[in-house]
Each structure stands twice: as structure tokens, then as C-alpha cells.
């Protein structure tokens, strides 16, 4: 009777190993260049210089920024100083504009 059954079937092959985990994205260095440019686009002027200096090496890695030199650093710092002065002027002009609008609106109501 054992001749009729034959040898037992071979065991099934082992399952394939699980795929490797996705790369960690906890680091700003792994952000795509497009996202970095979007972040830079929506920054306030006063925050731009701080971020640019903080991630300058990453911008270089993506080919967005040239190698840092003393002249580039000084121009960034001068740009920040000028931008902060313009921010103060812009805030002053916005305050004056709002005051004029309120004054004109109150004239219409009276």
C-alpha cells in the first residue's frame, strides 16, 4: 500500500524576506530640493537669512547655492540688514495706510 502513495511532497519554499524599511526622513538633508525651494519661497524676509545660513550646505548639495565664500557671507548679512530696515519701513507704511483707511471710513459714516 505504501507503494501506491509514493514519496511525500517536498516542503514549500520559505517565504521571501520582508522588504527593507523605508529610509528615515527625520533629517532636513533628505528633503527634496523642490520642497526646500517652496519653503524658501514662503518665508518672511526676516527669516530668510537665518534659514539660508542654517541650511547652506544642504543647498550646495542640491546645487542651489554656490560654495560659501567670505564675500557671499558678507552679502547675505548685508542683505539681511537691508531687509530688516525695509521690514520696519513696510510696517510703518502699513500702519499709516490702515490709519488713513480708518479715517476715510469714519468720514463716510459721519
From TrEMBL:
Region feature Disordered, mapped onto this chain: 1-27
Biased composition, class Pro residues, residue ranges: 1-24
Protein name per UniProt: F-box domain-containing protein
Amino acid at each position: 500500500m505504501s507503494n501506491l502513495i509514493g514519496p511525500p511532497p517536498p516542503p514549500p519554499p520559505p517565504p521571501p524576506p520582508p522588504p527593507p524599511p523605508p529610509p528615515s526622513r527625520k533629517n532636513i538633508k533628505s528633503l527634496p530640493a523642490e520642497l526646500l525651494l517652496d519653503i524658501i519661497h514662503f518665508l518672511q524676509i526676516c527669516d530668510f537669512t537665518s534659514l539660508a545660513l542654517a541650511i547652506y550646505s544642504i543647498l550646495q548639495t542640491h546645487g542651489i547655492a554656490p560654495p560659501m565664500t567670505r564675500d557671499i557671507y558678507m552679502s547675505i548679512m548685508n542683505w539681511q540688514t537691508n531687509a530688516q530696515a525695509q521690514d520696519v519701513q513696510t510696517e510703518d507704511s502699513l500702519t499709516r495706510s490702515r490709519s488713513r483707511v480708518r479715517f476715510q471710513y469714519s468720514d463716510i459714516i459721519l
